[in-house]
Design a protein that fits this description.
The chain has two helices and six strands. By secondary structure, the protein is an alpha+beta fold. It has one domain: hypothetical protein PF0899 fold. The strands form two sheets. The protein has a three-stranded mixed beta sheet, covered by helices on one side. Strands 4-3-5 form a three-stranded antiparallel beta sheet, with no helix packed on it. Strand 1, helix 2 and strand 2 form a beta-alpha-beta unit. Helix 1 packs across helix 2. It is elongated. The structure holds zinc ion. The site of zinc ion has 8 residues, from loops.
Amino acid sequence: MHEASLVQGLLNVAFRAVEEHNARVDARRAAGDPHAGARAARITRLVCSLGLLSCVEPRTLTACFELLAEGTPAEGAELCLHTEPLPCECEACDAAFELRERRFVCPVCGSDALRFRGGHGMIMTGLDVAAEDEADMPTAANEDKHD
Ligand SMILES: [Zn+2]
């Protein structure tokens, strides 16, 4: 299933980003940095851009996301999808333009002989997280480490 593998890839990227963030926070806390910030506990929102040629149905993708995110730190997160404009060139008249919908004809001469650059796949462009200690004891746990 195309959507499922895309979503799994996306979640892996998001989990890795959270892990890296937490590792940085841990390292700064260990060094006694009072501005280390908070560890991330949950993913609340994922922003993605979707290639015009990725052949993905946003509704299927969202359903897949909800299913695969269940029981993970991304459970209940909002998935925001943006379709990326696709850079193209016309082979007939050499016009360069961007397509924003799946109507693959040259806006200048009407030819459908187009060259695409990219347009496949899906990339994560934004990630919102919630801190684990938002509700209780912001940075008090750290205080004994200062000297
Ligand atoms: Zn053309």
